[in-house]
């Protein structure tokens, strides 16, 4: 659901109950979306996904795992044309 900033100020408790029961609530100012309220569980889930570059590198399998899936042949010859 969408709420204007003015509504949020006047009906904060209702908006928070809507977050708990209905999920994300979008806040607008002059018709433009400026924020979204999410429940704490969703926030933690979203925040946990972005562990950064270091975590991403840690999740890459060791390179020797790739040897198991790589074809043993040398591949095709490439015609580089005449020089």
UniProtKB/TrEMBL annotation:
Highest taxon listed in the record's lineage: Bacteria
Annotated InterPro entries: Antitoxin_Phd/YefM (IPR006442), YefM-like_sf (IPR036165)
NCBIfam families in UniProt: phd_fam
Family statement drawn from the similarity comment of this UniProt entry: Belongs to the phD/YefM antitoxin family.
Biological function: Antitoxin component of a type II toxin-antitoxin (TA) system.
Descriptive protein name: Antitoxin
Species assigned in the record: Nocardiopsis dassonvillei (strain ATCC 23218 / DSM 43111 / CIP 107115 / JCM 7437 / KCTC 9190 / NBRC 14626 / NCTC 10488 / NRRL B-5397 / IMRU 509) (Actinomadura dassonvillei)
């Amino acid at each position: 659901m969408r709420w204007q900033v003015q509504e949020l100020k006047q009906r904060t408790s209702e908006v928070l109950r809507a977050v708990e029961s209905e999920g994300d609530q979008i806040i607008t100012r002059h018709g433009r979306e400026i924020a979204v309220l999410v429940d704490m569980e969703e926030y933690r889930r979203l925040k946990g996904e972005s562990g950064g570059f270091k975590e991403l590198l840690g999740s890459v399998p060791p390179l020797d795992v790739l040897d198991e899936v790589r074809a043993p042949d040398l591949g095709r010859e490439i015609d580089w044309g005449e020089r």
